[in-house]
Every structure is written in C-alpha cells, then in structure tokens.
Amino acid sequence: MSIHLQRFGVLADDQYNENTHVFTFVFENPYKLVSGEVKSIESSECSYCGQKWSIVVMKKEEYMGVYLKWKYSDAPSLPYVSVKLKYILGLVNRSDYGLNKHFSTTQKFRIGQTVLGRSKFITFRDLLDIGKGFLDHTGKRLVMELTLSNCSLTFTKSIDISSSARTKKNTNGYYFDTPTFVAYANRWYLRIYPTKLNSNGLPASYLYLATKSKGLVLETKFRLYLESESSEILFYSYGHGARFDGFGRTLNNILPVNQKVETISVGIEILQLNITKDLQLPITSLSKHQDPSVSADPFQDNDGNLWKLFIDNNYKYLTCQLDKGVHHYQQNKTKLLCWKATLRSQIQQKFKDVEMLGDCITGYFSNFLDDCGLLASFPIEISELKDQSTAFTDNGNVIIRVNMISIQTLPVAMKSYPKFDYQSKQLIRARQSVMEKNRRLEDMKELSASQVSLGDLNSTCSKDGSAVGSFMDLYDMDNGLQPKPLEKNIDSSLNDQQAEMTRVFCKNLINYQIINNNGDVKTINKEFSRTRKDMGNFKDDATESGLGSDLSFHDDVVPSQHDLTRQRDVITAVIQYLQEKLPINITEIVQMGSIGTDCVTKSRADVDLIILSTDLPKTGQESWMIPVIQATKELLHYSNQNVDPYRPLPKCSEIKTSLSTVQFTCSGVDIDIFYSYDWEKGSTYSELYKWTCSETEKFQKYWFSVASVRLQRKFINEQRKEVKDVIKILKHWRNSIQWRKTKYRPDSYLLSLLVIKSCEETKSTDLTKVATKLGQYIFNPETSITWSKYYLPGKFEVEFDPPYPLIQDPANPGINVADSLCYWGQFKAEIKELLHSLNVPLHNVLS
Where is the 2'-5'-oligoadenylate synthetase domain (predicted)? Predict the structure, then answer.
C-alpha cells in the first residue's frame, strides 16, 4: 500500500505568475487501511514554494480522513515560522469530473499544527463501491488530487534590544540579527536597527540572504514587520549579481526605545520567490553543419540538481533545449521539472525581454526514459540574432534566463510516462459541454429580449433541481413579458404602472442572465473612508452597572431621535416600494445591519434588507443571483426616472452591485439588498442546519448564513440595552478607523457576537473589562465560542477550519462567523491601540 506522486501541473494567475500547482497521486491498494492493518499512510513528498508537503490518510471509525502535512526542515527555527496557503484536496472520479469528492480551505501551518484536513472525509462504503467511480477499473487504485496556491511564509521573533545586548555596530548604528530560518532551500535572517543613524532616529529592518546562491538569482517579494508597523510590499533580487546581500526599509514611526523596553517583535512575510539562472550562449558562430551549441557548464538548481541548456540550430526560430546535466540519477529517482525561458535584452532601458512561446513546460527526467530534453521556442529568428546590431546580442552571445518554477522528485524510477485514460475522457466531455453551452448562448443572443423563454432560464437557475417555478409562473409565456395578474391588494389606478415595472424587472433579469453567461458582469465593492478618533474618551463613561442612555457617550455615538426617526421612515418607504414592485411572492423583508438591530451610530447608518421568498431556489446562487441583482439595480434606476406618486421613493444614489447584493444610498442611509430562500416558511431550520453542516464551499455557506437572518436579528435584539450600548461604542470605534482594505474590517455581526460573549463572560458592561476580554478572544488562535439558544451544539457535527478562531453562529451551527474576516492582523493591531487608550496592560490580554 502506497501513495505516490505521478504527475503535476502549473496554472498561471491573472498576473501570469505560475503560483498554482496541481499534484496527482495514485493510492495503491486502500483495502489495508479499511481492514485495520495500518492506521495511517503518508504519501511521497511534493514541493511547493520551497516547502515540502505530503498527503496523510487515516482511518476514523467508518470514515477515511485526509490531511495535508507540512514538513519544515529546520527544527531550531520551527517555533518562529508559519506557512499560510490555500489547498484543495480530494478524490478524482473516473466517470465524471463533476462528481469529484474534495474540500477547499485556507490554513496556517505552524508548530503544533502541521497536519490539517478532514477527519471524516468519505465513508469506506462509498470509497470502495466500484459504482461510485472512485476506484479504477482494476478495483485496486484511487487517484487523489492536491491543488496548492497563494502560499506565504512568515517568520516572527522577539529580539533582545537591551543595553547589554548592544554588541554589534556599523556605520548605521547598533543592530541586532535574528537567528536564521529556512525558506526556498536557503537560509535567511533579519537585521534590525532600532534607531538608524542619518534617519532621524527611525527604526529600519532588512532581509539578508545567509547562504550562497549557487549562481542563481532569487527574485523575492516580501513585507517586513516591526512591532505593529509593516512596510509596503518590497521587491529585490538576491544572489548572483545582487548589489547588496540585504535589502529593507526604514519605517515611519519611532520605536519606544527606553530603559523599560527590552524586547521588540520583528517579522517578515515572504509572498513569492522566483529562482532563475542566466546563461550566456554563443549565437553568431552557429552553423547548420555543427552540433547544437551547449552552455559552457552544467548548472545547478536550488536543490543541487544539474542541468544543461542547448541552442538547437536545426530550427528557423530560436529554439532552446533543456536536458539533465548528469547521465544517471542516484537511486534511480525521477525528476519532474516545470520551467520557462526568457531571452534577455542587452539594453533593458529601451527593449523588453522576449518570453518563449506558449505556457511553461513540464517534463519527466529519468534514467529509463529515452528523451532528448524539452524544447522551448522564441518568436525571433536565429538569423536576426546573428546580426550584431540587435538588442539581444553582445559579442556574439545571447543570454537566456531559465526560470525553474518547480522541481519534484519521485521516489521511483519512471520507465514510461503515466497514463490516465479516464482523465482524458473527462477533458473530452468537458470540451463538448463547453461547445454545447456556447451554441446555446449564441441561440439566446439571436432572440429578442421580449421573446426569450423564461422556461429555459428556469432550468438554469437552480443547481439542485428546485427550480423557481412560482417565480417564473408570474409571467405569461405566450404574450412576451406581459405579467399575469398579481394576487396583491393594489389600487386599480396602479395596474398599468405595476405592469410596466414588472416588464422592466423581468426584461433586465433576462438581459443580465445573458451577460452573466458571457462573463461580463463586474463586481464593484463599496468602501468607506473614516477619520480615526481616540476612544479613550469613553472610558470614564463606562460604569459597572452599564452604559445608560443618559450618559454623555450618547452625544458622541448615538444619532439624535430626529435622525433615527428619519432613517426608519426612509427604510419603511424602501421596503414598501420593494414589496409592491418586485414581481415575486415576498414572505418578508428582514432588516439587519446597525439600524435593523438597533445598534446605529453617528459614524454610519446602514441597513441590510434581506428579501425572503419561497419562490427562490434553495441553492445554485452562482447561476441565478447575478441576473436578479442586476435586474434589481435597473429597477432602482427606473424608480429614479419614473416617480410613483402613490408610493414615492426617495432618490437612490451610488447604486452599485456585487456578486451577492445591490448597494445604494437613500437619504443618507446605506442600504444593501440581499435575496434568499425562506427556509422558515418553505422548509425547516433543522433542514437548513443539515445542509449547512454538510456544505464545504464557503461561497454556498455564505448564502446559508444569509438565510438565517431572522434568528440572527432576534439574537441581537434580545440583548440587554446596556450590552447594545457597548456594541454601539465599539462599532463607532471601528468606523473611525482607516482600514487598509475593506476586507480587513470586521463586520457588524462578528463584532456584536464578540461583545455579547465578552459581556456574558465578564458579567459586566464595563467598557474596560469588555475590551480586555474581547482582546483575549482575538489574540487567542484557539478561541472557541459556541451558543445553545436555538439549537443543541452537539446535535450537528461539523468541522471548522483553523487558523481562524471558532465563533459559531448562534443562528446556524454550520457557520463560523470568524470566516467573514479574511485577515486578522490589522484588527489585532487596532485592538492593541484601543486597549492602550483604556490603560489596559497588554500582558493582561496575552496571558
């Protein structure tokens, strides 16, 4: 029984960086795991971003668990190093790629957390059932697929900067070096100047390469950290030809260096590192009667493997050939190499480098494979390069840069190239499916918008077959887009306008469904910019008994009663307008956000309007949500141009859309509109919980969270007034911060849950105590917050992904609300500032 790496591929992102690797493993004879002969098995290693990884499968009861294991090579620096990446791990179905069993997650691997995955991935009954399609036709093998992307390595260390430790000095002042750590098979270290000379006493941090580069160039993208401050993203090429061994930045704020401060925290995040080798090859002396030109000497890659590069003179266009630099690999191992080449310009200021044709090249190199290397062509003729006047020739030589994107070592000797017939069949089926969809799309384009069959749209809207029947039954198919009579109590004088509004909504729904199929819909994110304020002013207003409405903080945080009444009137008008104009059976429009939960502040008045309807599908939002969102946007534009005298709506401005919502401003109130199936009216919450707990895709889980809005709102509204007052203060504090990115800003629901649990645990609404407890939750990576108000936590089994804390949604056991915040770094830094303004010692939080 074994799990061996068989092949891998590299995918490019939008910036043409090859940062996504797909590895294919073959699991031989899994029956021994089922029988209990072995409890676990680990695959052969694969390499990604300079780190070693492997797949681990284990038996747990009647399930097979699958995990990804991080294998860091340097034990002394392991406590200070962590790696974050996104991975997709699962089984390939031999019959249909759409039936693959997999899960996707983003994890942070560190000491004590090197093996992460799913303990109950698939039952052995399904795994070994030949009819399920996971076993091959021999019944002895499984094919596993691992996709790795978005990897970054972080090194963080506290260093001693006390007077007794100041033993090293140069022209820039006293400096301190961290211990070395390993990244991309090289050793690195950080050098810190707490008060760099000639820099007005500002601190500086530098990244140094500690090992020799073997003639390679290491193009590094990284960010430096010093205490709570970070540099911008930096780029520098280390190794061969580098002007300096180290590169860094002088930071903006002076460190509090005094007798009491003896340690500071320093760190670095390496976001990307490309390893290249520049080779000089003769070009003008080539002739058709001589052998291909060979590089002067074989060169080493970062792992010590030898390679050699030729220029093949048998082709009209410049063609390079890369081959192994040794005749025989030790221990009969096989190398898998992914590489690409670039023709370097000799005049970088005027002429750009020339990239090779096509994508990066992946090939097998083995003692038993009779090949002649891998060929790469350039869109330039050899005859042009022989002309000494070109920008690419210098003294009869050209420079070829070889980028060693990825190198894998197979523990066995490949005697033939691997074959996966059923994967090839899946590719053929996928191509046929794409061609069929394109044909249908062309047919739809030829139809007039008023003649499009909504029955076809109905069949594409629902992923699980629960089509939007009653939603589409509102329209008469034999009469274009004429609506059927709506069973609503509407004044007869509004019938013509109502019919026109229905036609507008439905027409835009169809148009944007077509646009969505073309992939032309763009997502526009709404960002808010605030001015930061000192929250220390509120400390004196906090009392042990709570924060009453008569305290002074209301003047700074809570809007006046007149403003609150005006905001509620605006929202009421919007809700009534949507209920009258939208051509679907709306069961309820639920208010969330600061206004909906009665936690509104002066710094921002917002409301989320969640439109619940049993006409909408339960799932498949990626198919039907965008056209509905776009049609709603056009409906709002229509209302601005055609004012309804019987149901006036204040003018809407800044109307934008995202993949999930319509965003606009109405009389100073920020409004977001969401759509969701009404599980309470059309099904049960127990059914919703089962669907959520079994779902692995975060995008679909997000929609199940939206569907839980009634209980979410009820949970917040049932809190004591004193607790809500603390929520208002901390929301006002959050709104006053200039967040570097919108996605770094904790949303209102996450912040509210943290405050509520902090009040429960401290049994107080004192701001200092609540903020201290909240800080403890945020800085503890193993925080686990659960509730039992609407369900029993042990009844629903669900696995949540670290490294995020667990903040289980009180309205839905399958949702981790902490997932809504993609980056916790700035949140932690801002909490530090808040605690400092409240005179709370940091050790009270970190202890």
Answer: 684-837
Neighbours of 543 (CB within 10 A): 14
Residue 626 identity:
I
**Tokens encoding 445:** 């384009």
Strands 652-657 and 374-381: unpaired
As a three-state string, the secondary structure of 404-465 is EEEEEEECCCCCCCCCCHHHHHHHHHHHHHHHHHHHHHHHHHHCCHHHCCHHHHHHHHCCCC
What's the pLDDT tens digit per position in 309-360?
Answer: 888 878 888 888 888 877 666 666 778 888 889 998 877 766 788 888 888 8
Q: Dmax of the chain from CA atoms?
A: 97
Distance CA 26, CA 24 (A): 7
How high is the pLDDT of residue 640? 83
Are 10 and 362 spatial neighbours (Cβ–Cβ below 8 Å)? Answer: yes
| Confidence check: pLDDT of 486 > 60 | no
Which domains are assigned to the chain?
Answer: 2-153 (2.60.210.10), 161-274 (2.60.210.10), 283-410 (2.60.210.10), 437-518 (no CATH), 715-847 (no CATH)
Name the 3-class secondary structure at 123. Answer: strand
**The pTM of the whole model exceeds 0.70:** no
Cα–Cα distance for residue pair 144/682, rounded to 1 Å: 39
Backbone CA torsion sign across 783, 788, 794, 800: negative
Tokens found for residue 168: 């090293």
Q: Is the peptide bond preceding residue 803 cis, with omega within 30 degrees of 0?
A: yes
Three-state secondary structure of 323-366: EECCCCCHHHCEEEEEEEEEECCCCCCCCCCEECCCCCEEEEEC
Q: How far is 794 from 815, CA to CA, in rounded Å?
A: 14
Amino acid code (one letter) for 293: S
Joined tokens for residue 319: 């063609």
Distance CA 588, CA 325 (A): 71
Identify the CA nearest to 182 among candidates 294, 51, 91: 51
Structure tokens at 430: 């996928």
CA distance 811 to 518: 37
Assign 102 to helix, strand or coil. Answer: strand
What's the start-to-end Cα distance of the chain, in Å?
Answer: 46
Helix or strand or coil: residue 744?
A: helix
Mapping DSSP to helix (H, G, I), strand (E, B) and coil, where does residue 831 land?
Answer: helix
Do the beta carbons of residue 197 and residue 172 sit within 8 Å? yes
Assess contact for 281 and 26: CB atoms under 8 A: no
Backbone angles phi, psi at 580, to 5 degrees: -80, -35
Q: How far apart (Å, rounded) are the C-alpha atoms in residues 45 and 53?
A: 6
CA pair distance 752, 716, nearest whole angstrom: 8
